[in-house]
Please model this.
Amino acid sequence: MPDIRLRAAEPYRQDEHSTAVLPDRRKPNLQVRSFQQDKRRILFVTSELADLVKAGGLGDVSAALPRALAGLHDVRVLLPGYREVLDSGHPIRMVGGVAGHAALPPARIGRIDFDDGLIAYVLICPELYERAGTPYVDEQGRDWPDNHIRFARLGLAAADFASGRAGIRWCPDLLHSHDWPAAMTPAYLRWRGSATPVVFTIHNLAHQGLCSLECIPELGIPAAAGHIEGMELHGRLSFLKAGIAYADRVTTVSATYAREITTAEFGCGLEGFLRSKARQGLLSGIPNGIDESWDPATDPHLLDHFGGNDWQGKAANGAYTRRLFGLQDSPGPLFAVVSRLVYQKGLDLTHAQAAHIVAAGGQLAILGRGEPEVEQHMRELAQRFPGHVGVRIGFDETDARRLFAGSDFLLMPSRYEPCGLSQMYAQRFASLPIARRTGGLADTIEDGVSGFLFDQPSVASYRQAIDRALRVHACPPLLHAMRCRAMAARCFWSHAIDPYAELYQKLLERRREVRLPV
Ligand code: ADP
Ligand code: GLC
Model:
């Protein structure tokens, strides 16, 4: 076994409330099943939690999936204590801590108890996490240069937690780590000699968490980790590869993306490795769901509700959206974009459709933030088509929900899309998605029934789908029928948790002897 000597954790106060017995106010919220006696302890390791901090769909999944599983297991979450987490107003109780290791500083662990019973552990390390910006980039959109330290710190804290070295009595039976920021969890755990099973979920293969091989001493990892059998990828270290290499099972967030990532087109250099995992039955696609708050009849974010025979509310949200985005009143179709403004999302393709949409009497409302040059292109579009194209650069949950509710169509011409949540939210709010047939978009949109799919990431292929949508908009009975089908799509987590539950069960049943890959 490689020798990575870790200093013993300082003696922290035991977390006296974190026993298997749930406090009275903790109610199994969404799912109530009859396996109470089999409840196991599961720790989600993630860099986002929508209640506290969210850059995209990962935050939503990290918040919704533990809650959906709460009837089956005691699922808690560990995430970094960014400034917005500490400033969120939720009381944080100090319950433990982890020792420093190599260049990773020591950190304390706090605990937040949400009203609905979810428990989040917060890794507090001001020098790494308390900064302005998003979890990953500074205010100018540049990656934090010490991201490898910041997120190795997260992975090692999770491994320490699971090895009983965090001073917290609640010790997970299984870890579920998400995406590259949490991908070092299984690696450190194996190097610790722990047999606690780990599920690693890829939400986006394109973000790998790469750093130089020279970071090995800083990260305090064995030299063999820098070899191809470890986490080396094209002469660098890939956190994401570590997750794939050292976890017991790898999942990704839709069946189609699980297949796509085994091909050169989508595999980001890891396709061969992923193919071998798939052949061994160690890679699978489990589709995301959405939480039940996405209900146009009750969502408190909306200006007015709708559904059934009452559609006035949709018009009210549409009127608000037009005002908010500086658009003229219009009976024409309103197209929405709610997105990270990044290459993945194909915003350049939407940019190229704007003139066509406006010429057809349509309007475009864009809400997003992301790469500075994409933001600039979007602003220019609004200047070119005043009153017809409106752009808001920023991140606002309420406006996003009102935009889904108020629009007729959602544009999602993604180059790739591991799952995608926005198209599911849009369908629930009767905004028909127009999307590329890839990843989770292909799996969650029924072409011509609940939305429109196109095949090629080209202006021409996308244009055909937009034209089909325009024709449907011109035919109210057809538009109404499609809206009703879209709203009825069964995409809630309550329908999607069984595959995770089965996977956890399998792994928990065979806690295995550790065989170190390096
Ligand atoms: P990704 O995770 O790749 O960004 P998803 O569709 O899975 O894509 O999830 C995106 C999530 O982020 C959705 O909840 C969407 O509504 C939300 N979102 C994206 N951009 C914004 C924004 N500017 N303001 C508010 N919510 C946003
Ligand atoms: C990633 C993907 C997105 C997915 C989300 C949640 O951000 O880009 O497709 O829906 O993770 O799994």
